[in-house]
Amino acid sequence: MKKLVLAAACILFSIAGFTQVKKFGDMVGRWEIAGEQNALLEIVDSATITLTYMGETRQITNLKMDFSKSPYWFDFTTKDSASVIQVKSLVEIFGDNMLKWQLFIDEERSPYFTASKGEILYLKKRSTAVTATASN
């Protein structure tokens, strides 16, 4: 029995050691919103975040992130021409280049992704690689 418990503990610790812990740095970059032209989320650092959507670019402020939740909580405010908008959202990071993001504007956040409220967006990290061309 002791050997079984010891083996199970070793397996759990090895899995925990190989599991990546996501953090804010994993979200830094330019993220294109799937299905939308000229729509992106650009995260430079925690103080410089912009969202371009439906032809408008807005600064994201009052950022609050909770990586202890699953999916992560990502709350912020932004301004339109008439008012300040408070947004609650959920984020899930897939690998190094995909995000699932659900926005809850003027409604309570669901603890999980759901199609019954909010808006779900899928984002892909824009490649920053520069391609060189041969010149003659």
Descriptive labels:
mainly beta; Lipocalin; 8 strands; 12% helix; disordered C terminus
Summarize the structure.
The chain has 136 residues and is mostly beta strands.
> How many separate helices?
1
Beta strand count: 8
Question: How far apart lie the N and C ends?
Answer: 73 Å
CATH architecture call: Beta Barrel
- The strands making up the biggest β-sheet line up spatially as 1-2-3-4-5-6-7-8
Rg computed from alpha carbons, rounded to a whole number of angstroms? 19 Å
Estimate the mean pLDDT confidence.
79
Q: Structural class of the secondary elements?
A: mainly beta
CATH class: Mainly Beta
- DSSP strand content: over 45%
Shape field: globular
Query: Superfamily at the CATH H level?
Result: Calycin beta-barrel core domain
Helix content: 10-25%
Main sheet characteristics? 8 strands, antiparallel, barrel
The residue ranges in which pLDDT falls below 50 over 5 or more consecutive positions are 1-21, 129-136
Oligomer: single chain
Give me the strand/helix succession.
HEEEEEEEE
- And the CATH topology? Lipocalin
Number of domains: 1
Account of the protein in words:
The protein has one domain (22-125): Calycin beta-barrel core domain (Lipocalin, Beta Barrel). It has 136 residues and is mainly beta. It has an eight-stranded antiparallel β-barrel with strand order 1-2-3-4-5-6-7-8. It contains one helix and eight strands.
Secondary structure elements and their pairing?
Elements: H1 2-18, E1 29-33, E2 40-45, E3 48-53, E4 56-66, E5 72-79, E6 84-94, E7 98-105, E8 119-125
Antiparallel strand pairs: 1-2, 1-8, 2-3, 3-4, 4-5, 5-6, 6-7, 7-8
